[in-house]
Design brief:
Radius of gyration: 23 Å
Strand order of the largest sheet: 6-7-8-9-10-11-12-13
Largest sheet: 8 strands, parallel, barrel
CATH superfamily of the largest domain: Phosphoenolpyruvate-binding domains
Number of helices: 23
Distance between the termini: 60 Å
Number of strands: 13
Helix content: 40-55%
Bound molecules: phosphoenolpyruvate, magnesium ion
CATH architecture of the largest domain: Alpha-Beta Barrel
Strand content: 5-15%
Length: 487
């Protein structure tokens, strides 16, 4: 089947594998004898491995790995990261990769240490080398001497002390030095993080990346499975809100087999809300699960990759339909659940006025906003020097979105990695952002910086406009704003 797709349809190999296995999986799933239908999972698995191998993604974990072993990958996916964490490993190395990929975001969230994009170094390593992975400095120490070992032992202790010191901020109010309240939420990727997040003392969950529920397994979680997870989160975080983002599949979070064909250009393809609207069953299953869970706490829903207000209204229409369905089935849900859109595509930022008029809240996905504004693949380290989140074009779109939200008196948060990056906090506050959704590991650090900031920032930032160059902006917030973000 694969060879005939290559020969007859002139498909490239990956596309041929993807399409062939999708079709086999669908045939098995449609079989009425259950034991045959269950074989679909085996084919899905073989297809995934074949495709990974073709893409140079090496990867299942060897069974004899111990927690102080450091596996080495050519390329790593979010699902592999989640497997490393559940296997108790602490660090890994990767020949490819970039800071803002979903695998990296999940790596940080799960407290793993990693260094990526070091192909030459990796090729020089031997199996028995003793390694220290210094994630802070992006430094790999190979076969350290006694002195270096002592230095790192001390560094670990100092960091632990700093962590304890920052954690003393738990009970303090989140506000700037001149008393402006700033809401601080946490980002969550996998349910295992809930325990830690519920102890942070944060204002709730500002982004739950639900697609991680999907990509770390071979099949779609059922309505009941999703309901259990969402309900547990809502109950645990109540009375604070849990903002559930509907599946953001596509891009580097590829859908498992059986749901759509491979795409030449997945980041510009059927990603996020487009994927959900093209797979109504998947979308409705998720929305029903969310709605049922909303009876047990404060849940908000937001849609990823919205391009404009029509896109949002189409998603809202499906949501309303699910509400009606649940109502007629006599199932309980929160009828005043808030609906929001993510601003992560320039067209959404430019059309933020229209969106703000229809949405209950907005959330700025700056990781993608930078990627799409600057046309730079956030996963491709070859072009990482162009991935400038503080580029004036990106900042203008942030400012425009914040102004639209203020005009229609709805909240707007930043949930991209900028909100978790120390030197961007004063900048975002100066642009008028009052809500941040942060990687849990950086939560107290961001809180400490917020406490040092003040209203002078908005005057300083008002000097910025689109005519500023990147060096001018860097000069502004690396030099003038340094005392705000240096702890
Ligand atoms: C973003 O794009 O900034 C965002 C929060 O979404 P994700 O990183 O999951 O694409
Ligand atoms: Mg995004």
């Amino acid at each position: 089947m694969v060879t005939s797709a290559i020969k007859n349809k002139l498909h490239h190999t990956c596309l041929a594998v993807q399409d062939s296995f999708t079709s086999i999986v669908e045939q098995f799933e449609a079989m009425s004898v259950e034991s045959f239908a269950l074989r679909a999972a085996d084919y899905r698995d073989v297809g995934t491995r074949l495709l990974n191998a073709l893409n140079g993604i090496t990867g299942t974990l060897p069974h004899d790995m111990e927690s102080d072993h450091i596996p080495i990958f050519n390329e790593i996916t979010p699902s592999m990261v989640s497997r490393l964490a559940s296997a108790g490993l602490k660090a890994y190395l990767c020949a490819k990769g970039s800071y803002n990929s979903h695998a990296s975001i999940l790596t940080r969230a799960l407290n793993l240490v990693a260094i990526a994009n070091i192909p030459l170094l990796i090729s020089s390593l031997q199996d028995d080398d003793l390694l220290i992975v210094d994630g802070d400095e992006g430094k790999l120490v190979i076969n350290p001497d006694e002195e270096t070992l002592d230095y790192y032992a001390q560094k670990v202790q100092v960091e632990e002390l700093l962590r304890q010191k920052l954690a003393e901020l738990k009970a303090s109010v989140s506000q700037t030095a001149d008393g402006e309240p700033i809401s601080l939420y946490a980002n969550i990727g996998v349910p295992e993080e809930l325990e830690g997040i519920s102890n942070l003392g944060c204002d709730g969950i500002g982004l739950f990346r639900t697609e991680f529920l999907y990509i770390s397994r071979q099949s779609l979680p059922s309505e009941d499975e999703q309901y259990d997870i969402y309900r547990q989160m809502a109950e645990r975080m109540a009375p604070t809100p849990v903002t559930i983002r509907t599946f953001d599949l596509g891009g580097d979070k590829l859908a498992p087999f059986g749901l759509g064909a491979a795409e030449e250009n997945p980041y510009l393809g059927n990603r996020g809300i487009r994927f959900s609207l093209a797979h109504h069953e998947v979308f409705r299953t998720q929305l029903r699960a969310i709605l049922r869970a909303s009876a047990f706490g404060k849940i908000k829903v937001m849609f990823p990759m919205i391009i404009d207000v029509e896109d949002f209204l189409e998603a809202k229409h499906v949501f309303n339909h699910c509400q009606e369905e649940l109502y007629s089935e006599g199932l309980a849900f929160d009828s005043s659940i808030e609906l929001g859109a993510m601003i992560e595509i320039p067209s959404a930022a430019l059309g933020a006025d229209a969106l703000a008029k229809e949405c209950d809240f907005l959330s700025l996905g700056t990781n993608d906003l930078a990627q799409y504004t600057l046309a730079v693949d956030r996963n491709n380290d070859n072009v990482s020097r162009y991935y400038i989140q503080h580029h004036p074009a990106v900042l203008s779109l942030i400012r425009q979105s914040v102004l639209s939200a203020a005009k229609y008196k709805i909240p707007i948060s930043v949930c991209g990695e900028m909100a978790s990056t120390p030197h961007y906090i004063p900048l975002l506050l100066g642009l008028g952002v009052q809500e941040f959704s942060i990687s849990p590991n950086n939560y107290y650090m961001v809180k400490a910086i917020v406490k040092k900031c003040d209203s002078k920032l908005s005057q300083i930032i008002s000097r910025f406009d689109l005519s500023c160059s990147v060096p001018e902006i860097e000069n502004l917030f690396f030099k003038e704003l340094k005392h705000y973000y240096q702890l």
